[in-house]
Known about the structure:
The chain has 252 residues and is mainly alpha-helical. It has 10 helices and no strands. It has a domain at 31-41 and 77-183 and 200-229: Urease accessory protein UreF (Orthogonal Bundle), CATH 1.10.4190. α4 (69-100) crosses α9 (199-222).
Amino acid sequence: MTMTMSTTTMNMETAITTTERHDAFPGGQMEPLALLRLMQLVSPALPIGAFNFSQGMEYAIETGWIRDEEAAFRWIHGVAQRGVGSMDLPLLVRMYRAWSDEDAPRARELSRQLIASRETRELREEDRHLGRSLARVLAGLGMEGTEVWQRDEDATQAALFSLAAVRSGVPVDAACAGYLWAWCENQVIAVVKLLPLGQTAGQRVLERLRLEIPQICRSALALEDDDIGTATAGLGIASCRHETQYTRLFRS
């Protein structure tokens, strides 16, 4: 009887927590074409080569920092919260506003700031690669203003992602959620490849991350300029050491 009541209570608490997170996430109705554009931007089929990068996770697994499903979740969630959520997303929000105001120089400045925040050469090159690749895709789709970014040293995925979101009518909060979802999904794909984890375990990790994404985005939307930054020392160390790792599947 005690075990049954305890399980029931846990299920109720999980349901309440999930509902609270859902209600706390700002959002609204999105036009069908805008929603489809967002789905296109976050799709693993988008040909920008995101699958080539693990962002230091390959070294973290090689050295034993990540050994199982729980450790994988903690690593990805930690970087999502204290890295992507506190640096990439706040800058994406500001780039979104700059593109909305047709202020391309401001968007470029913010994109440059994002690249400058990266601790290692691999992470900077990853940003530039994904940004230029997304620019090529968007230019191929006929999106005006993206051609100049195809060989630009200041290009980042966040800059082109926010531009596409503005041009397609994707709300800024939905753009943040989509960007973070795509990042989390790519990290899960990487960890499933690197660990004997299994697809179902990978989906469990992704499900736990899904429940955290709304609050991370909400915090990013509210972050003041002076509070933007990262606290991901483990990622920085892993990325540094990955540059000289003997055998590698990923470029970062």
